[in-house]
Amino acid sequence: MRRATEWIPGWPLRRRVTAVAAAVLCAVSVAGPVVEVVAASTSQRIRELLDRPDGLRIDGQSLDPRTLARFYRPRDFAPAWDARDGGPDRAALLLRALVTAEKHGLDSARYHLDAIRGRHASSNGGHTGELDLLLTAAFLGYARDVRAGRVPPGRRDPDWGIPAAPFDAAAALAQGVREPARFRALLASLPPPAKDYGRLVEALRRYREVAARSDWPLVPPGALLRPGDDDARVAAVRARLAAEDDIVSRGATHFDGRLEEAVRRFQARHGLSADGIVGEATIHALNVPASERIRQITLNLERWRWLPRDLGPRYVTVNAADATLRVVEDGRTVLTSRVVVGDLQHPTPVVQARLDAVVLNPRWNL
């Protein structure tokens, strides 16, 4: 068969152009029904899988058919990640987010990554109902975890009194599928927008790098180390601080002004009195392993996901860990104060309330 664009001797130019146009129209008319037939077949497969009475397992992954049905039933079980409406592009963006879920302190293995890759490879780049369900389950799980937390607020913290903000991952995905151009923005909007959350993400990255290098050296116990001292333990302090502070130089045993500044920075980061003196509390904080710091950061990332996403232009926060109160207006801290907080036997509850008045110098009766 001759190509439509090939010159056929004896054909006039008009007939040649007509042949080319007919070939293009033929290609369009054939391609449309093929996509629709494939999509219909995938929809039927999705319906069959969700209707299984014995639960839903795909490639060793247990999926929740009720949660998935809440997304697929309103769309008549149409696939969400196939070749129509930019589905493959959305899938690529989702996989990129899942691979980097670790930076939020989340476990990428929770989101069926291996099963998705294996199913995609086995289908030779085609799209199946199983693959569509795996991708949707991955999005719903990741979106819930990074937006609202892996566990409901307060389940492991009885002193947590802030109710969870409503979030419907299935509705968010339905909106993202209806408006493909907004899917990238949807993924970016899931983590908390607070700058402190971003700082924790960066701290988690740094501490993981330290842990991968076999942790940091310990500082031996002993007498107070003050600026101006010459002591062999000063070298240990330098080596420990240099593991996470590029400004600190190693080796020297003299406690100089630059080391004092580094000690103060460390103390401020860990809620200690920033006096520049290396005492028992500072040594204890210095000797906490990087793996424990990673665990603490991961837990606090989770707590950030429990917090309200918008505190308004004016708010007051109390950091119970370092007993500090901050008054914030338009993103700027206008007042900082020390406050009294609880202890292990009498923990400070985590609450949110509207502040209508402040009483100065109240009556205090024992």
State the order of secondary-structure elements, H for helix, E for strand. HEEHHHHHHHHHHHEEE
What's the average pLDDT?
A: 85
Based on CA inertia axes, which overall geometry fits? globular
| Helical residue percent band | 40-55%
The tally of beta strands, per DSSP, is 5
Write out the strand line-up for the largest beta sheet, numbering strands in chain order: 3-4-5
The total count of helices amounts to: 12
> Could you list the spans in which at least 5 consecutive residues all have pLDDT below 50?
1-35
Question: Biggest sheet, open or closed, and with what strands and sense?
Answer: 3 strands, antiparallel
The first-to-last residue Cα distance is: 102 Å
Fraction of residues in β-strands:
5-15%
Helical/strand content category: mainly alpha
The Cα radius of gyration reads 30 Å
Tell me what the structure shows.
With 366 residues, the protein is mainly alpha-helical. It has helices spanning 13-50, 65-72, 87-99, 113-122, 129-148, 169-178, 183-189, 195-212, 232-242, 257-269, 280-286, 290-306; strands at residues 56-58, 61-63, 314-319, 324-329, 332-338. The chain has a 3-stranded antiparallel beta sheet, with no helix packed on it. The protein is globular and about 80 Å long. The N and C termini lie far apart (102 Å). Mean pLDDT is 85; it is low at 1-35.
Topology, element by element:
Blueprint: H1 13-50, E1 56-58, E2 61-63, H2 65-72, H3 87-99, H4 113-122, H5 129-148, H6 169-178, H7 183-189, H8 195-212, H9 232-242, H10 257-269, H11 280-286, H12 290-306, E3 314-319, E4 324-329, E5 332-338
Antiparallel strand pairs: 1-2, 3-4, 4-5
Helix pairs in contact: 1-5, 2-6, 4-5, 8-12
